[in-house]
Amino acid sequence: MSDLHSINEAINAKAGRKLLPSILVSLSLVALVWLTLAYAREFFALLVAIAVGLGIREIARAFSATGTRISMRSLIVANCGLIYAAWSAGVAGLAIATAISLPVLLISRLRKGPQDFVKSATATTLALIYLPFLAGFLVLLARPDDGLARVMTFVVLVGCNDTFGYLVGVLIGRHPLVPDISPKKSWEGLIGSVIFTSLGGALSFHYILELQWWIGIIVGLMIVFTATSGDLIESAMKRDLSLKDMGSLLPGHGGMLDRLDSVLLSAPALYLALEIVKHYS
């Protein structure tokens, strides 16, 4: 037992966070996603809206700490509108809701005068596009009749990328991928993500979506790129804002944004891939 404890402590020290709570939180989130999709898909859209709302709160607080203020309440209202529009009217609804929300948010900022307007407007635009707009594609994945299969395939792909990239990087990672942005991310971890996400893509596309396995490999490689890029983008934001984590809501993960980082860029990528496959099949 002492040997296992020592190994666990060594992994925690190298990874920079506790492994067991991280795994438990991930499994709990997957179970919650599956339950909502299996029994009441409308509640999945609500779950996405809540997660994004928590992310908006985190990013608003992070910006505020550096003197950049954005309207958290206005963004949360916009978030609800975008998620509802995506669920009720599809990709056109999401696009229209975004096109309406952005100018409304910018116009409402005018009440505070010209001081720091560009800084605040830029941060507001980033928050709107980065969070509710990109997260809207999660809702678009869940919206069709096969929404459960689509989202669970997405969970498999992103889960393989994050989990095996993390484990391989912790166990044998020696060569930093981008040390200036994320010192703990390694080339070995990226290779682990490529191998296991390709395998997960082949299996999930064949057994869950009932599509050709080789398409799953291609999509898996695409998800490695988008999920890793999303992780690096959030890491760059944290470094620029001098933060370790965006929050402390999720044990072993940090804040909600630390959990959503690889998801946000990957959801529109998988949505596009499935639409292309649907069009040409």
TrEMBL record:
Organism from which the protein derives: freshwater metagenome
UniProt xrefs under Pfam families: CTP_transf_1 (PF01148)
MF (Gene Ontology): phosphatidate cytidylyltransferase activity
Acetylation keyword on record: no
TM helices/strands, residue ranges: 20-37, 44-64, 84-108, 120-142, 148-168, 189-208, 214-233
UniProt keywords, alphabetically: Cell membrane, Lipid biosynthesis, Lipid metabolism, Membrane, Nucleotidyltransferase, Phospholipid biosynthesis, Phospholipid metabolism, Transferase, Transmembrane, Transmembrane helix
Entry protein name: Unannotated protein
Single GO biological process annotation from the record: CDP-diacylglycerol biosynthetic process
Record-level GO cellular component terms: plasma membrane
Topological relation to the membrane, as annotated: Multi-pass membrane protein
Subcellular location: Cell membrane
